From TrEMBL:
Location of the Flavin reductase like domain: 1-103
Xref: InterPro entries: Flavin_Rdtase-like_dom, NADH-dep_flavin_reductase, Split_barrel_FMN-bd
Family: Belongs to the non-flavoprotein flavin reductase family.
Entries under SUPFAM superfamilies matching the protein: FMN-binding split barrel
Name the record gives this protein: Flavin reductase
PANTHER family per UniProt: FLAVIN REDUCTASE, FLAVIN-DEPENDENT MONOOXYGENASE, REDUCTASE SUBUNIT HSAB
UniProt keyword list: Oxidoreductase
Alphabetical list of SMART domains matching this protein: Flavin_Reduct (SM00903)
GO MF annotations in UniProt: FMN binding; riboflavin reductase (NADPH) activity
Species assigned in the record: Sphingomonas populi
Pfam families registered for this protein in UniProt: Flavin_Reduct
Amino acid sequence: MGQCTSWLGIAEIGRFCVSVLGSDQLDACKRFAASSPDKFAGLSHRSSPSGQPILDNVLAWIDCETEVIHELGDHLLVVGRVEHLERERDALPLLFFGGGYHKTEGIKL
Ligand SMILES: Cc1cc2nc3c(=O)[nH]c(=O)nc-3n(C[C@H](O)[C@H](O)[C@H](O)COP(=O)(O)O)c2cc1C
């Protein structure tokens, strides 16, 4: 866990805002999945009600206070208490599963 520099900042503040990316936002996803001193540089964003960054043009955002952290093997499961959330636009989400990125029409069961 020593390499997770973004997590150290999130853990210290005790808050985070989830930006739900659309399938047209792969570049932003790749940027945030790699280490960099300022991942937000040159990327338009604004503040959530609790002061955390929200990327512009996301499908939805979820503003949370850290509620509890569970250690699961070599991962941490961070559970957030939702304080605010907003749906912003209707489009296909960016999905990651089976080792790759996907966009898909909703499958109705
Ligand atoms: C789809 C996806 C899922 C990821 N899941 C995890 C994860 O569960 N745990 C983890 O440590 N890193 C995960 N990563 C890699 C982190 O995004 C990456 O290590 C981190 O953002 C590096 O930035 P940092 O140095 O600022 O923490 C994932 C990356 C992608 C693209």
